[in-house]
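Technical appendix A lists one of the benchmark inputs used to test multi-chain prediction within the project. The record comprises two sequence entries:
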Amino acid sequence: MLTIGVCECVDKTMSESLQYSLENLFLTVDFQRILNIVGFLALLAVVCLGLLLAEKSKQINPLKHSLNKLKKSFDQLDEQARLIVKTDLELNKTQEELDKKISALFTLQKISRLLSTTLDEKEIFRRVHQPIVSELGFERCFIIMRDQQKKLSLKISHGYQEAELNKILSFFEHDPFLEKVTKEGALLSSVDASDPNKKRIANTLGVAYFILSPIITQDGIEGALFVGNSPTSSPLTEGEEEMISILATQFGQSLENARLFEQVYSSHHELETKIKERTKELADALEEVKRISKMKSDFVSAVSHELRTPLTSIKGYASILIDEKIGNIPDFVKERLEKINKHSDGLVRLINDLLDIARIESGRIEMKFEAENIKDIVENVADLLSPQIKQKQIELILDIPDSLPKVLIDHSQIERVFINLVGNALKFTPEKGSVAVRGKEANGYIQIDVQDTGIGIPEDAKDKIFSEFYRVDNLINQSLKGSGLGLTLVKYIVEAHQGKIWVESQINKGSIFSFTLPKG
Amino acid sequence: MVEWIGVGTSREKDSFRAAREAAVLAKAALKQENIDLAFIFSSIQYNPENIIKGARQIMPAAKIIGCSGSSIIMSGTAEEFGLAILAIKSDSLKFGLGYSSNISEKVVRAAGQELAKMSLSNLKSINRDIFIMFTDGLIKNSSELILGVEDVLGRSFPLIGAASSDNFKFSETYQYYQNNVFTNACVGILLGSSSGFGFGIKHGWKPIGKPREVTSSEANVIKKIDNEPAINMYRDYFGKEAQELQKTKLSRLAILYPMGLNIPGEDEFILRNVIEVTDEGFLVCQGEVPKGSEINLMLGSKDFCIQAARDAALEAKKGLKDKPASLIIIFDSAARKKLLGRSASSEINAVRDVFGRNVPVSGFYSYGEIAPLKAAGHRGTSYMHNETVSVLAIA
């Protein structure tokens, strides 16, 4: 190449050709060099690249390996995530089930309390309200019951619209499958949903999951309790089935209790009404008796007064005749006149007694209460009756301690009581018998017992002897006349002193008349 | 500070009497003759028209807004059958109400715009603080609705709310606006010149297993995950148990193990409940799931739930910046209520304990909770959440 450049120089002017040749030479030399350098560099680069590539590919392999490892770990992690998620789901389900059970148990207990604390049938239904149903974990609920005419009616419903309710009723009336619940008493639920009929029930009642439990009472299957949930909630479990069954049983028992209570209450009420009626009748009768008794007293009082006046005249005239103030009279006439006098006295006593009874009964008699010593009165009476005592040789025992407190009494009236009681004792005690008058303190009162050894009073007469005009049928009463007013008067007087009188007696052994008087 | 607040509740079964009773109690607690604004939250058993009539008898002039809920929050308890009225009177607080009805017949985003515009024109104040909205929980693409509202009020405007619910019947939920009862609608209230508010939203679920990718979706329907029918994700974890998802709407499995969308920068994943599974094995969710989302299966527990409620309350309290709360509104997920069961009140009380038990509280259990995302990248954009407890505290 250098030779060619020199030959070209010969044909051209020296300087030009030299310059040209030099330039050309330099250019050619430069270009060549550059080419050589570039070629070398390229070769070097290729070699380096090759080396680098070889190096890199050496490095890539472990990287690839690491990447694969990483990917594997990532997938493993995702696998673990799957495991975690599944475990979490299981845990959630268990937790949910547990929560549900606990909350259902709480609610069940709450409902049981609510149901058992009322005995009103309507209130029992009212107490199953929306919040309680929600608490139990259900969105929809109703109770359907048969009435006395065996017609179904809805007692409560939650979560349903008015229009849906009519559909429910007609569904229950016409679907034969539901008779399993309403007639056979079986529980139906979506827990085992294999039966297509159950699907139909769920659809008709607007839920995805449900439990339908019969409500049974002593009278049989009376209705059904329904609870259900929409598809958004979780499927129902056997635990929930049991819970609703318990609730339905509780419901039946509560209804039964309410009815029993209603029965008891109404019979109690009936009884009360009857008692009230009878009490009123008795009160009316008592009023009538009181009225008649008052009329009687008034009558007796009026008649006695009317009788006393002519009797006084009869007695007066008889006395005048007996005393022979208007001339002598034969003995047999005198004898009869004395009989008139004697019977008149008897009649006067009878009238006086009657008058006294009437007065005490009507409260017209005025008692003068004073503190008195009972012993004085008894001794006084004993003196008064001493002729009879002596005549029948009766032993009179007076056992009234000096320490006995005074009594608050009307002296003359209590004296009459003693005269009557001691007089009776003497009358019915055979000769040589004994009569005792004893005094003692008892229950805050002074009790006096008048005891005789007489013929006694028959059991059936004990209650009657204090009645007006009652006389025990015995030989003594047959021979000795009496008014039958003595003991009545005694009773009235004792009662007017806020005391009581009673008798204990044994036939042929004697009687004890006891009465109480207030302390002075 | 909202000057006068009164909460009244009723468990009465008759709609008219329940609303009347709650209104009387709210008015009594308010200790004022006139009520400016009333929130009504009612459970689904009531007749909604009669609720309005009952409330109107006691508060004829009050502006009324509200909706139906699966359960109603009454002080410390959650009632499946009940009604709460929250009555407010304030000289300083300004508000504007709006609504958009018949949403399914409209372009959803436009409905959101309509709602926001109406509220804005009704607000007689330049200051706007927060928008509270109640949307029908049965509307599928509620995210579009939120976007519509944000078109008018701004992407970063605080948007809080919840989806009305019907206790898992999925048939009809109600929205209240003045004397109207709507279904298939969205109602809202724009608050202005308030003295401050704070909100917090939490759920407490944690991701488990490997993340997957939503490879095909449409609004709230996830069609494919990792190029397989979406249901396979649940089948993969639960085997046969996954059938429960197909058998029942919003099944227990869907509540216990929701899906979580990983949003970079957020403390927690956004949860999505599977409401139902289509024959093709697509998962229908409560709320939108965009294609390309990274999703995980989520795992939770009762304790996490209660702790989440406490955390949400603490976050809301932080937002108040040392001002005392005059009122707490809780939007809690109906799914959480179902999960917590009898412990539902623990969650409410956890919130109450943060603010003090004397602060009036109301709210309901919803089908979705609307609240802004906090991550910087999202600039406070609101989102539809599932299974969360959302706490709004107003100073």
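Confidence is low (pLDDT under 50) at residues 1-11 of chain A. Chain A is about 60% helix and 15% strand. Comparable benchmark entries are summarised in Table A2.
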